[in-house]
Design brief:
The chain has 14 helices and 19 strands. It is of the alpha+beta class. It has 3 domains: 92 residues, Rossmann fold (3-Layer(aba) Sandwich); 64 residues, ATP-grasp fold, A domain (Dna Ligase, domain 1, 2-Layer Sandwich); 216 residues, D-amino Acid Aminotransferase, Chain A, domain 1.
C-alpha cells in the first residue's frame, strides 16, 4: 500500500481522527460542522473544511479540494456522518464503504429485509406511519412489540410496547426524539442482549470480543455491560458462524463492525442492529483491558486497507489465559434538572478495581429521566478476574459518586 495517502475524514470521533493521523505517511483533511472545529483540529489536520449542516455544502467543499489535491480514501466513524461520507464518495468516486452496505446498515427496515431474504433472521418488521399501522402489526404478531426510528442510534426513540394503550405515547415519543424520522415496528425478541465486535478482511469476519448488556426494559438504554460475555464454547462457535453470515449478507468489506444481538430462549441468534464502526460506551477500553487489542488503532489501519487480522488474532491468543473481566456502569437520574457537578471522583478512582471514571455531563447541562444513551450522567469502569466481582465493583463505584442536580419543573 502507498505510504502517501491523502485521507478525507468526514465528521466526528476525534479519537479515531488521531489514530488515522498517527499512521505514517497519512495526510488528513477534516470535513465537519464549522462550530465544532477546534484549534487542535486545525493543528492536527493538514486542512480543515468547516461547513454548515447542509449536505450540499459538504459535497461542494469536498469537490473543490479534491480537484486541486485528490483524496485517496474517505473515512468516517459516526452513523450519521457515514451516510454523508457515502454520498460524498459516490460524487467524487473515492474509495469508501460500498453504497449498498451503508444503505443496508443505516436503514433498519432494509437490514431486516436483507436478513429475512437470506434466511438468517426472520424477525418481522414493517414501516409505520400511524398508530393504526402499529395496532394492525400488534394484532398479527402479538405484544410486546418494539417501536423505533428507522435510522437513529443510541436507543433514540426506542420503546417496548406491551398494550394498545401504550402505542400512542410511544409513537409520539419516537417521532419527537428522532426529529420526525420514519418509524418501524418489530417483533419483540425475548432473551439476553449482547454485542459482538469484529474486524473484516478479504471476506473473513474475525470476532474480537463480546459484551453482555444490561438494559432498561422499556427504553432499552444500557445502564451496564460486561466484557467478555459469559458465552459457552458452543455459543461462541455458533456466534462466529452467525455473525459471518450477517456481515457477508450485508456486504461488509475491510473495517470494524459493532453488532447487537439477542440469544432467544430457544437458543437462536437474533439481530437487533449492526454498525460499520467501533462500539461506543467505552467498549474499546473494555476490550483493551480484557482482550489486549487496541481497537482504535487497529480500526484506523483496517479502514485504510492495511492487513490486521493475523496480528489481531495473535494478541487475542496471548491474552486468552489472563481471564480478565471488565464492566462498565452508567449513572442516570429520573428527575428534570440542571447538572451542577459530581463529588467523590478521586475517592472512586482509588477504589479497588476501578480503571476509569468519566463525567458525561457538563455544569449547566439540562438533564431529564433517561430516554436515550445521551441522557446518562457518569460512567465507571472496573476490572477483575471474576465476572461478578467486576460487575459489582463498577456498580459500587458508580453509586459512590455524589451527583448534584438543581431540580426544575421539566423545562430547560
Amino acid at each position: 500500500m502507498s505510504k502517501n495517502l491523502h485521507v478525507l475524514i468526514v465528521g466526528s470521533s476525534r479519537y479515531m481522527h488521531r489514530a488515522i493521523q498517527n499512521i505514517q505517511g497519512v495526510r488528513t483533511t477534516l470535513l465537519w460542522i464549522a462550530k465544532r472545529i477546534t484549534d487542535e483540529d486545525k493543528e492536527k489536520n493538514f486542512r480543515v473544511l468547516g461547513c454548515s449542516g447542509n449536505l450540499d455544502e459538504w459535497i461542494s467543499c469536498a469537490k473543490a479540494v479534491h480537484l486541486a489535491d485528490p483524496f485517496d480514501k474517505i473515512v468516517s466513524f459516526d452513523d450519521e456522518d457515514i451516510v454523508k461520507a457515502s454520498i460524498i464518495s459516490e460524487v467524487l468516486n473515492v474509495d469508501f464503504f460500498p453504497p449498498n452496505l451503508v444503505k443496508t446498515i443505516s436503514d433498519k427496515y432494509l437490514m431486516r429485509q436483507v436478513l429475512r431474504s437470506k434466511g438468517i433472521d426472520d424477525t418481522a418488521s414493517v414501516l409505520v406511519n400511524t398508530v393504526e399501522d402499529i395496532e394492525h402489526f400488534a394484532e398479527k404478531y402479538r405484544y410486546p412489540i418494539i417501536i423505533k426510528p428507522i435510522s437513529k442510534y443510541g436507543s433514540i426513540g426506542v420503546s417496548k410496547v406491551s398494550s394498545v394503550e401504550e402505542i400512542g405515547p410511544a409513537f409520539t415519543r419516537g417521532l419527537q426524539e428522532s426529529n420526525n424520522s420514519q418509524m418501524i415496528v418489530e417483533q419483540y425478541i425475548y432473551g439476553q442482549e449482547y454485542t459482538v465486535e469484529c474486524f473484516s478482511e478479504n471476506g473473513t469476519h474475525q470476532v474480537v470480543a463480546t459484551t453482555m448488556k444490561f438494559n432498561d426494559p422499556i427504553t432499552k438504554v444500557e445502564y451496564a455491560h460486561i466484557c467478555n460475555a459469559p458465552l459457552s464454547e458452543k455459543q461462541k462457535s455458533e456466534l462466529s458462524i452467525f455473525i459471518s453470515q450477517v456481515l457477508t449478507a450485508m456486504g461488509m468489506i475491510p473495517g470494524p463492525s459493532h453488532t447487537e444481538f439477542i440469544i432467544s430462549p430457544d437458543n437462536k441468534f437474533r439481530i437487533v442492529e449492526s454498525h460499520i464502526r467501533l462500539a461506543g460506551d467505552f467498549c474499546p477500553e473494555m476490550i483493551m483491558s480484557t482482550v489486549g487489542v487496541d481497537m482504535i488503532g487497529t480500526a484506523a489501519l483496517s479502514v485504510l486497507g492495511y492487513p490486521i487480522l493475523e496480528s489481531t488474532q495473535k494478541i487475542i491468543n496471548l491474552h486468552r489465559e489472563k481471564n480478565l473481566w471488565c464492566s462498565v456502569n452508567f449513572r442516570h437520574d429520573n428527575v428534570f434538572g440542571i447538572f451542577q457537578g459530581v463529588e467523590n471522583i478521586e475517592e472512586v478512582e482509588n477504589m479497588k478495581g476501578i480503571e476509569q471514571v468519566r463525567i458525561l455531563k457538563g455544569k449547566g447541562d439540562f438533564i431529564r429521566p433517561t430516554e436515550c444513551s445521551k441522557d446518562r450522567l457518569t460512567m465507571v469502569r472496573a476490572v477483575s478476574n471474576n465476572m461478578n466481582e467486576a460487575i459489582e465493583l463498577a456498580r459500587k463505584g458508580s453509586n459512590a459518586l455524589k451527583i448534584n442536580v438543581k431540580l426544575t419543573n421539566g423545562e430547560k
